[in-house]
Amino acid sequence: MRTLLIAALLTGGVALSGCEGSKSEAAAPAPAAKPKSLARPAQMYAGQEQILSVSKGELEMDGGKLILKVEGATPAAGYTDAAFLPRIYAAQPKDGIYEVDVIATRPEGAAAQAVTPIEVERAWAGYPKDRLKGVKFMAKTNEVVAMLPAAPAGS
């Protein structure tokens, strides 16, 4: 009887020591949480959706116009009418970086499912001149931030 009790205690001790190791592994710090956006997406028309990804985003000033430029990819060939759709804010973002969805109209019918490059360049009429410091280009799988170019000296 004592032999069984000792064997049970030893087995339980070995099992518990195995749990102890898993506790220390599980206690690794979690990755930092992504800050929550204060904007909401604007309404898209039927057939429009975010492009798959953005690889490069740029902002240029042309006179008083702000030109948005993006290089990215769509999930298939045949996407048309690529454009930018600024998100809607209840209050201005504290950091001055405004979110803009990069969208295109998906092809009708079946399309070859091959990642296809796309370039989008448009002027943003009515952008918040006094508050804008940068733009976060939003796609399905990623985001790219582009900052407003520095004003030329003497302006």
Structure description:
- The chain is of the alpha+beta class and 155 residues long.
- It is 16% helix and 39% strand.
- It is built from one helix and ten strands, in the order αββββββββββ.
- It has one helix at 2-26; strands at 39-40, 48-50, 53-62, 65-74, 80-86, 88-89, 97-105, 116-123, 134-138, 143-147.
- Strands 2, 5, 7, 9 and 10 form a five-stranded mixed sheet that branches. It has a three-stranded antiparallel sheet with strand order 3-4-8, with no helix packed on it. The protein has a two-stranded antiparallel sheet with strand order 1-6.
- The N and C termini lie far apart (93 Å).
Question: In short, what is this structure?
Answer:
Helices cover 16% and strands 39% of the residues. By secondary structure, the chain is an alpha+beta fold. The radius of gyration is 26 Å and the shape is globular.
Topology:
Elements: H1 2-26, E1 39-40, E2 48-50, E3 53-62, E4 65-74, E5 80-86, E6 88-89, E7 97-105, E8 116-123, E9 134-138, E10 143-147
Parallel strand pairs: 7-9
Antiparallel strand pairs: 1-6, 2-7, 3-4, 4-8, 5-7, 9-10
Q: Which labels suit this protein?
A:
five-stranded mixed β-sheet, alpha+beta, 155 residues, 10 strands, 1 helix
Mean pLDDT value: 82
Distance linking N and C termini: 93 Å
Sheet-strand content, in percent, reads 35-45%
Q: Count of helices? A: 1
What is the molecular shape? globular
Helix and strand element order: HEEEEEEEEEE
- Structural class determined from secondary elements: alpha+beta
Radius of gyration (Å):
26 Å
What does the main sheet amount to? Answer: 5 strands, mixed
Poorly predicted runs are: 14-24
- Write down how many β-strands occur, each being a DSSP E stretch of 2 or more residues: 10
Q: Considering DSSP H and I runs of 4 or more, what fraction of the residues is helical?
A: 10-25%
